[in-house]
Amino acid sequence: MEGRSIIVVGGGTSGWLTAAYLARAFEGRVSITLLESPGIGIIGVGEGAFPTIRETLRYIGIDEARFVRQAGATFKQGVRFDDWLHAPAGKRRHRYLHPFEPPFHGGEASLVPYWLLKDADNRPPFAEAMTIQNRVAEAARGPKRPGEGEYDGPLAYAYHFDAHRLADLLRTRAIELGVRHLEGVLTGVEPDGAGGIARIHSDAHGALAADLFVDCSGFRAELIGRTLGASFRSAKAHLFTDRALACKIPYDHPDAPIESVTTATAHEGGWIWDIGLQGARGLGCVFSSAHVSDGRAAEILRGYVGHDRFNARIIPFEPGYRETQWVGNCVAVGLSGGFLEPLESTGIVLIEAAAAMIAELFPFGGPIDAPAARFNTLMTARYAAITNFLKLHYCLSRRDEPFWRDNVAAASIPDALATLLAQWRHRPPSRFDFTVDVESFAWFNYQYVLYGMEFETDLSGARDRFGDAERAERWFERIRGFGRQAVADLPEHRALVRQLEGGVSA
């Protein structure tokens, strides 16, 4: 009996990452074909990832030096948030870091309660007190040293990259793994009469049939949306941004330091991403069209850059996701399944999660849609959880512009998040607040945002439970010392990138 077959419709990061992942997982037991239209460009909303990408790249067999070299990658150690708490007032600005490294533990005890019980006016910022990554990122150091293993190092990290070059690299690797690559324009989709797809049609290859079709056609959602009519659940009641104005700005000189964090700077109607690539900075003004016009967004971006010598493109999007992402023999991955916004690099995390679930749940016999219900339950729950996490960044702001006031309004906060915020007034976020299989972010990620935004958790009633303040203070001092030592030991970020770019294993 012939083995089963999969057709991935669409290239880009979602199509090629999914194809490569499935080819690696199935090791030739499933025929995988990818149909890519050469005339359709890559959206590229944001050009960063989450630390999970390291294991994904390792799994599909792309070594780190090759990735850095061919995808134009640099290292990312977290996200720095500027002006989210309040608008700048003269020299008075607020910023905090959401690092990837979990908070240090003082032996077996959490240090978080001891930080919360400190005098709020005199204690250091949460990330500075709890990790060494704050100091490393501020010094523009890399997260690892020369000689350390691939995708390994003393600190958690991800990457910034060129989205087009990453897609090219993933295409090459997928083909190496046995994926059949077809170039052609999708000209039609033929339903099977039972709620699925019988075959697709392309101008160059005619009719193509498969057991499973993976829709990676982007916002167009040619299969899951236009053909099968899977409904779309908008998240605009909670997340207001729906447009981005993106561009690239060259460095002033080729040896300019490269930031190893994404900088997210709030403005009157959204925020600006600023990422350090190898040869340029990637920038994007993310905004709500209900609060800021395209023209005003362009003014905000020009003001941030300091000149108007750049070309920017508008990228519209609607935050939300398909309520059913696996319908019959079709499953959506990437933008066809949903998109929330570029904040915290959630797009690629969702692609990784979907590809891994397809690989794990794929039936080699019996109904091809047997895993659909489980897949749909997990993916929609994951989108809902990410919506809560993203909203957390906005709803704690004290800015007074209409966009920010609307974000703080109780009616705009999801019920699940509002319930947790009420509890977190009296205790810090815990691992028991979250279901691991549907979360892209851990409890400590919530802590970094909460306490970076000066959220108040009152532990005074439990002070007698945390009586070892002197021991905790010794740990805080050790963390400060570890941070100073790390800055001295770790290489400059650009130097580390150049070493890997030259093909030398770090």
Description:
- The structure is a single chain.
- This protein has a domain at 5-74 and 159-235 and 319-371: FAD/NAD(P)-binding domain.
- Helix content is 35%, strand content 20%.
- It has helices at 12-26, 52-60, 64-70, 112-116, 126-130, 133-138, 163-176, 222-227, 294-305, 346-361, 372-395, 402-408, 415-424, 443-452, 469-489, 493-501, and strands at residues 5-9, 31-36, 74-76, 78-82, 95-99, 105-106, 109-110, 158-160, 180-183, 186-191, 197-202, 206-208, 212-215, 232-234, 243-250, 262-267, 270-276, 280-287, 313-316, 320-322, 326-327, 330-332, 338-339.
- The longest helix has 24 residues, at 372-395.
- The chain is globular, with a radius of gyration of 23 Å.
Q: How does the SSE layout of this entry go?
A:
Layout: E1 5-9, H1 12-26, E2 31-36, H2 52-60, H3 64-70, E3 74-76, E4 78-82, E5 95-99, E6 105-106, E7 109-110, H4 112-116, H5 126-130, H6 133-138, E8 158-160, H7 163-176, E9 180-183, E10 186-191, E11 197-202, E12 206-208, E13 212-215, H8 222-227, E14 232-234, E15 243-250, E16 262-267, E17 270-276, E18 280-287, H9 294-305, E19 313-316, E20 320-322, E21 326-327, E22 330-332, E23 338-339, H10 346-361, H11 372-395, H12 402-408, H13 415-424, H14 443-452, H15 469-489, H16 493-501
Parallel strand pairs: 1-2, 1-13, 2-9, 4-16, 13-22
Antiparallel strand pairs: 3-8, 4-5, 6-7, 10-11, 11-12, 14-20, 15-18, 15-19, 16-17, 17-18, 20-23, 21-22
Helix pairs in contact: 1-7, 1-10, 10-11
